Amino acid sequence: MEDMVFSAPVTFALVFFLGFLGYRIFKLLHIPGGAIAGALVIVALVTSQGVGWAELPSYMSTFCQVILGIMIGCKFSREKVRQIKSLLVPGMLVATWMICISLVIGILMARVTELDLGTALFGSVPGGISEMGLVALSYNLSVPVVTLFQFVRVLAVYFCLPSIVLKYDNTEREEAADKALPIVDKPEYSKKKAYYVLVTILLGTVSGFTANALGVPVGGLLGAMVIVAILRIMGVPLEEVPRWAFILAQVGLGAFLGTTFTPDIVVTLQGLLLPTLVFSIIIVLNGVVLGLLVHRVFGWDLVTSLLATAAAGASQMSAIALDMDADAITVSIIQAMRLALILMLMPTIITLIIR
């Protein structure tokens, strides 16, 4: 496959096809969060063989975030607005916990392996595959290693967390959601309702891309979510997008992440397999412990607590929250607060440490 090089249109078609194939396989195997995880795994497997994908435009990922933001924004109400104030303290707790644990893990990784301290620290920060890769590039650090750690962490969270959630939580939640899927998959839209769906997508797209252009962390999701939520609270009759669009958005995000798993990362993985696995296990367990703590202290339901404290992206965890009937608004807000604080604080903190 190393000699295969594709143009941008062919890359888009093939990556999306492989992602959808992964989603269907994971769905048949009843793996929770299969739309994202399935797409990510299948595309990653193909990418790791050296396929020459063209660079996918960033607006692909942003638009997928917009769809998820619309889905979450449409769930806002006056009661939910009052809930946001109560999320400031747990949001700061989660972010502070993650930052401290990341620093400890990064220092340990640098001592156990031959990695330089900067690469180990940026690899351990749960700030996103693309985000941390770009930051590492600006500091002339080992981008493949940073991307490897970020990728394996995300993969470990996607594989382990939904199963852990279902193990801790009442399995009737999963059964009820499965039974409800055929009903949700086939909505009947009137012409008037379809019109409001199109208006919602247009407003969400404009606000999401605007927020992204302004450099807002997870701007596609947050921009669409905020504007749609505000308008819904004001009484504007905006509508959720159909479930098939939501699934395709998840597939797109998973496929987009899968294209980062290049052969360079496979070669790097061979020498760092054991520390990478240990790192991933610690990250997953850290998220579970933090989720249990938040569940006990703040009284949230366990599924929401575990997803909100997972060391993965806001878009991906919000999508899984919607998939598992958790409080997607709480999950997205906590995850976005964590990501924003990490992106604002960690580069400066790490710079002071490695000097």
- Secondary-structure-based class equals mainly alpha
Provide the helix percentage: over 70%
Look at the structure and give the mean pLDDT: 80
Q: Low-confidence parts, pLDDT < 50 over ≥5 residues?
A: 171-188
Using only C-alpha atoms, the radius of gyration works out to 20 Å
Distance from N terminus to C terminus (CA atoms, Å) equals 42 Å
Given the structure, what is the number of helices? 17
The geometry reads as globular
Number of domains: 1
Largest sheet: none
Number of DSSP strands? 0
Describe the structure.
The protein has 355 residues and is mostly helical. It has one domain. It is 77% helix and 0% strand. The chain has 17 helices and no strands. Helix 14 crosses helix 15. The termini are far apart. About 5% of the residues have low confidence.
Could you list some keywords that capture this structure?
355 residues, mainly alpha, 17 helices, globular
Summarize this structure briefly.
With 355 residues, this protein is mostly helical. The protein has helices spanning 8-28, 34-47, 58-73, 78-85, 88-112, 117-124, 129-138, 143-168, 172-185, 191-213, 219-233, 243-258, 263-271, 273-298, 302-308, 314-323, 328-354.
What layout of secondary structure does this protein have?
Blueprint: H1 8-28, H2 34-47, H3 58-73, H4 78-85, H5 88-112, H6 117-124, H7 129-138, H8 143-168, H9 172-185, H10 191-213, H11 219-233, H12 243-258, H13 263-271, H14 273-298, H15 302-308, H16 314-323, H17 328-354
